[in-house]
Every structure is written in structure tokens, then in C-alpha cells.
Amino acid sequence: MHIAITGGAGFIGRHVAAQLVDAGHTVIALDSLLDQVHADPMADADAFPGRVVKGDILDESAWAELGEAEGLIHLAAETGTGQSMYEQDRYRRVNVDGTRRAAQFAVEHDIPIVSLSSRAVYGEGRTLWPDRGIVFGERRGPGAVAEASRESDEHHPVSVYGETKSEAEAVLSKTTANRVPSAIIRPQNVIGYGQALHNPYTGVLAAFLARLREGRAISIYGDGLQTRDFVHVSDVARVIAWALQHCADTGEDIVVNTGSGERITLLDLAHFAIDASGRTDVAIEHVDVERAGDIQDAAADLTRLRELGGPMPAVSPRDAVADFIQSSWQQPGADSTVWDDALDELQDKGLTS
């Protein structure tokens, strides 16, 4: 199969492409190669195992260069939770309008499409309260238990990024309904080798790495008991590749979560990173600040993926963190002040409390 991948030269895209090529497929990428995402755009393009078309997601001439693709994987997106709160038009343009164009391309070429969404659509997700039962979209309180989110759960995004991903899902479903099969993948926090180390919106683990390399204390916002589901990029790539083949074989439309299947706290994450780095001299400091768009708890229920015969995660969160820290230790990246500056910008815009 000849497969087009939007955002193919990015972190997840390169892993997906490698797996597809190993399975005997050919690939082509459409990627804007933005500096915020790519420290060395040309090196990332060269690392892609196929041709890379440089272009904007809404550039018709760029889409025309993708040729006769037999499947489409749509990964291109703006992903910064905090940044989305003050770059709303940009995020809606890329994430919503870009997904609409990708869906139209799939319909025009009569090919299956896989679109990467986000766990951010759930917001605070599913919580079990002793007196109220299951409640969606509220933070865990005394006596309440955070439960893993299911694909059928209500959407309660708390960031503009999450809103755009929820809107993009609706756009994809409406555009492709009864025309071509589609898969929506909702990953948890994806980590692993190749993650952008200079981008302050790429995730908390890159910030931990920068501070560990400098011997600075790791900063955690709040008490560190917030929970997340950190999943290795190879596990996410396997689900994406499987989903495209599943849609091609069955003609079904599917929505599935992907994650590690384990919930850990941010304190756990910090300790995993310290252990992997060997920098046991580095302390953990708590910062009394909350950023707009942050949530308390997130984890994926993988029951639906299992029922469909999809690939289950093979890498534990601890091992995923170790892989990221050890494989990235000698890679060039920004110093930790980049994350300090990003927080300052949010504070200047009134997006912290």
C-alpha cells in the first residue's frame, strides 16, 4: 500500500513511517517543517523513509503532490495546550480546517483515513463519586476515584487544543460518513526517542530532561499527585498502522484509545527520570502555580482496542521514560530556561493562577 502521512516528518510520524516501511508499504509525507517542531527541519525530513512534500496543511498544491495514495494517516497538528489558549485562530486553522482538508482528500481518492486525536477531548474525564456515581468533566474530590476514559465518554475539553481536537473528530466523521472508512485514535501522553527537545510545548518530560542535564531541580506544578498515562511512541505507532489496515480490510469506522494502560503521578514520572539519568543529586521542587488548560487526571481504558484485536502496549511507563532519557541525553536541545520563558509568557497573558 502507498500511504500518505501528514506531519510525517514529526516525532510520531517518523516512527509510524518506519513501521509501515518495515511491513512492506511505501510512504510519502506532507509536512510544514516548522521550526517550533523541528530543531533541524532538513535532518528530520531526511530521516523520513520516503519523499517529504514541504507545505502547509491547507495548501492545495502540496496536496496535489501526494499522488495516488492508497491510505492516509493524518498526524499534522498544533499540540501545545498552554499555547492554544492565546493562539486560538492558529490552532483551529490547523487542527480543525486541516482535518477537514485531510478528510476531503480521503473521500476524493476513495481511501481509508486514520486521524490522530488526543486524550484532551475528555478533559478531566471520568470520575466515580461515592454519592453521585460516574461524573464527567469534574476534578477528583475527596472520596472520588479517577477512572480510565472510555471512547463513549462525554467530551469535556478544558483547553482550546482539546476543543479543536473534539471539533476535528466531528468534522472527520461528518465528511467521511458512508463514503470512506475512518479511524480516530486518542493517544495519551506520547514519549520516546525523537521527541522535540527544544519545543516547550512538547511535554513535561523534555523539561525534566533539560533540568537533569543541567543539574537543576526538576519543577513540578502543584503537589505532583496529578495522574497521567505515558505511552511509548512505538506502541502508538503500532496502533496507528494497525488501524489503517483494519479500516482497509473491514470498511469499518472506529474510535480507539491508546495508552500504556497504567496511571502514574507526575512525582512518579520525575523519579523515573532521575533514576534513568543517574542524577540522584537533582532535587524535585514544587511550584505553586496552575496553568490554564491543565487537568488533574488522565488515563486510557483500552478495552475497545483489545476487543477489536488491536495491538496492546508493550512498553511500561518506567521503561518508556528510561528510553527517552537515555536515548536523548546526548542529543542537542534547548536549555531549561525555554520552559521558564514559556511559563512567564502564560503568566504575562493571565493564563496561570
From TrEMBL:
GO molecular function, one term: isomerase activity
Ranges that cross the membrane: none
EC number: 5.1.3.25
Top EC class, one word: isomerase
Domain of life, per lineage: Bacteria
Claim: Transit peptide is one of the keywords in the record: no
Keyword Isomerase: yes
Provenance organism: Helcobacillus massiliensis
Protein's UniProt name: dTDP-L-rhamnose 4-epimerase
